[in-house]
Amino acid sequence: MARRGSLDEAWGFYRSHLGPVLRVTALTYAGVVFISAAFVGLAGLYGLIPAAYLWLASLYWLQAPLARVVEESRAGSPPRGARGTLDSVYPQLGRITGAGALAAVAVATAFVVFFPVALYLMTRWALLVPVIAVENVGLFTAFSRSSEIVRGHAWRVFGRIALSVLLLLGALVVVGI
Known about the structure:
Layout: H1 3-16, H2 18-43, H3 48-75, H4 82-89, H5 93-113, H6 115-124, H7 128-135, H8 139-150, H9 154-176
Helix pairs in contact: 2-3, 2-4, 3-4, 3-5, 3-7, 5-6, 5-7, 5-8, 6-9, 7-8
């Protein structure tokens, strides 16, 4: 599929399923905000350290229920609702967290050692969490499967990652102002 076509398809999906997507996102981040507040409330400024990790991990955690919403929609299944969707990925949360942590450590290490390798790893493992959520495979199988799916589309995937990072940074600047 052409680059513009896949982006149009993604935007079209999110527009047509705005309610379920926003409910899943809001419920996920409500939990993250609550737990972050508890960390800061219990540990003061030191609580910002686990809270920061929690916010980074939530980027991975949110991919799982959103991938499940997309997969169920494509299969023609009726929507489960936000709580049902989150409950459906709860048994995989350990694998998702482990995969996110391993990928983050590998990418951060590669970033320090040789920056292009970090970009390569981010591209190869871009579908790590959706593979776990949709295909329900093991942790290390998910790394291989993500690389397999991305093979042949690496430049397009890399472009989308770069665009996402730029949009995220732009949003952070706007919110910061």
